[in-house]
Amino acid sequence: MNNLIRLSTSETLSALLIERGVTIWDDAISYIQHLPYGRNANRKDLSLVITEGKGTCSSKHAALKTIADENDIEGVQLILGMYKMTQENTPGIGNYITKSGLSFIPEAHCYLLLNGERLDLTSPSSSIGRIENAILIETEMAPNQVSEWKVDYHKQFINAWIISEGIKLDFNAIWEIREKCIAALSNS
Length: 188
Hints:
The structure is a single chain. By secondary structure, the chain is α+β, with helices and mostly antiparallel strands. It has seven helices and four strands; from the N terminus they run H-H-H-H-E-H-E-E-E-H-H. The chain has a four-stranded antiparallel beta sheet. Strand 2 and strand 3 form a beta hairpin. It is elongated and about 55 Å long.
């Protein structure tokens, strides 16, 4: 990316970053990537990533895509990848999946495609390489889809997976295991 792209003061998320001394696109990427992992008070309000100083893969990448859009930065796509979440490719989730007798749970993970390159900017230690070989399907999405649409898509995907794979656990049991994994990530 061109590290000289200045952020616009007239756009919401960009203005919030500028207030914090972040004025360049590449610096915005680094700033958001280095924020702690955690769910925001309102999934629909991407400004909370900056004002609360934390975010998930969804909110952080949606915020970065919004900032790119606010500043007419081309070649930035927000991607939803459904992947096989395991202890091996998602460190910090605990052993909830294996305890349940499953080898994986389909997990929705957001990341960016920057000029054709997948980038996971969830944290400085995140690496798309950990899940690249476990990706089941990818779809481009808009930042405003990270709240309800992404959750609905994820739930529908899990329901279809339960049926197609003959999984013995029902949706609620699978979702509860998933929530425990996400909570463990938030605490790690």
